[in-house]
Amino acid sequence: MEIIKKVINIFFWIWSHCPVICLSDDDYFATLKFDNIRNAHLRFSLLNIMLGDSVIYVFSYDIKERKISFIKNLRLIDIDGNVLEDEKIDQIQNRFRMHIAKLLDDDLEIEKEKLLYHIEREEQRISTSVDKINIYATIILTVIPIVVALIDFGSIKDLPIVLQVMICIAVYSLLNICIYIFRTIKVHGIKKSSFSDLRESSDRKKEIVMQYQYDWQQLKYKAQLFVSFVLNLQEWVVVLLILTVGISFGVSVQDDSIASVDIKNTKSIVFTMNAEEIGKPYSNSAVNWQKVLLDIEKKQCNQIIILTDCNEVPEEVKVLAKYKDLEIEIITDRDLDKGDFKLIEVK
What we know:
The chain is 54% helix and 17% strand.
């Protein structure tokens, strides 16, 4: 059952992130999950443009509210639990003030220790999230040069349509990753308690506990926002890595298939000659050499591959350099006898 649920969630993730005709959940920043399908805030849209921590829906229908929107901008900070509004923190503080009003000093000290623990924990969550984002940024900086090296962007149009789509999705994923990383850098700071309030308070013991409570709430929501950034960023990184492997494999297979077709369509003749016999009239090496020269003169040959035994290339072969349109490749073959060389005439 768990495997089936994971497969369904993968399908839902792809569908909710699909640029066209997608079904998404506004309560979970577009991501649709099997466990939340009954209570989900579903939205059906014709066009879905994901730009990091923002999703732009074009021609969408809010199924829960039964409302049609031409353009809907869903932001990650608008998701409940990611940003602490002033009205909400005031309500939390008022309830907590009423709570500690009846506490004795010993109980107040316990509350303070617990709040300090919560503050430390939220700071650790933020620090861990930043570390993960830095790791993902490093991965991306490593992947991009590899992709650029493997792909000849000038020949993308000649690739199969599947590889072209994969490359487009990879660029789309990379764009989202970069936006998340930059948005993390630009995350606004949080409001913290002020020392002046503590100094002017008539009951400093309770006031400092109130301030710890205030700072904890602010840090908790900031930590939740960073965790949301990391989780969404992680999804795009996984997609990009999978696509990178797939594109690399596809391009290599494509190159091999093209090379094999070229080989099949190429007619080649192999001559084995001896450097000393080329100058001897009517020898096999001399006759073969004249055939090669004749083919070159008639432009029936556009490439020559020469295999030598590591010794110096024969002087006769060096003469071929005068043919500007002729491609000459020299390869070492240690298995050849001394003085012998092979000449492959590619037509």
